[in-house]
Amino acid sequence: MCRLSFCAALLSILLLHACGGSRAISYSDSQEELAELLTGSFSSETQALEDSSYSAVHLHIVPVWKERTGQWFYVEQALAKQGEKPYRQRMYRVVQLSSERFKILNYEFRNPQVFAGKWSAPQFFDDYPEEIVLIKEGCGVFLHRKAFKHYEGETYGEDCFSQFQGAQYATSEVEIRSDLIKTWDRGWSEEGKQVWGPKEGAYRFERIDTSSEKSGKEE
What we know:
Elements: H1 4-18, H2 27-38, E1 40-43, H3 45-50, E2 57-64, E3 71-79, E4 88-96, E5 101-109, E6 133-135, E7 141-147, E8 150-154, E9 169-177, E10 180-188, E11 194-196, E12 203-208, H4 211-218
C-alpha cells in the first residue's frame, strides 16, 4: 500500500506522460501563447542550403490593428535576395474556438504594393480600414494545440479556390513551434493531381533575429 499523497503524485505523472507532456492551459493563456509563436521573422535559408529544390525565403509576421476586434497579423514573404519585392502578402485573423483550438482566417490585399515592407512598421496599418483586404473563403487553417508551444493544423477539404498554374484548389498544412514555422502549401487539379508547391514536404522557416537589420534602417 502506498500513501495517498504519493499515489496521487504518481497518478499525475502517469497521466502527463500519457498525454505526451502536454498541460492544461487557459483560454487567454493559449491565445497569448499562439500570438507569441506567430510573431517574428523567419527564414528558410538553412533548408535551401540542404536541398536546392527549396528557395531561400524570408517570412515576417507582425500583429496589427491591436485596438480592433480580433487578433490581426500582417504576413509578408520574399525571396532572401529580393526582400524589397515580396511575392506574397496576406492578413491573418486568428479566431479562438476553444482553449486549444483556433482558426486562422486568410485575407488578401486589394493593393498589396502599398504595404510592401511594412512589417517593420506595423503602426502603418492603423490609418487603414479593414476593407483593404478580402477574405479568401475556404482557405482558413484550423489549428490544434499539440503540446506546450506546439500547434498543428490544416485547411479542410477542397474549398480553398486557386487558379494558380492551372490549379482548381489549394491546401495548406502548418506546424508552429517556438523555434520555427513549417508551411506546406500545394495546388491541386480537379482530378486531384498536384500542380504546384513542394512535393517532398513543408517549407521550414527558422526563427531569426532581425534587430541588426532594423537598427540599420534607423541609422
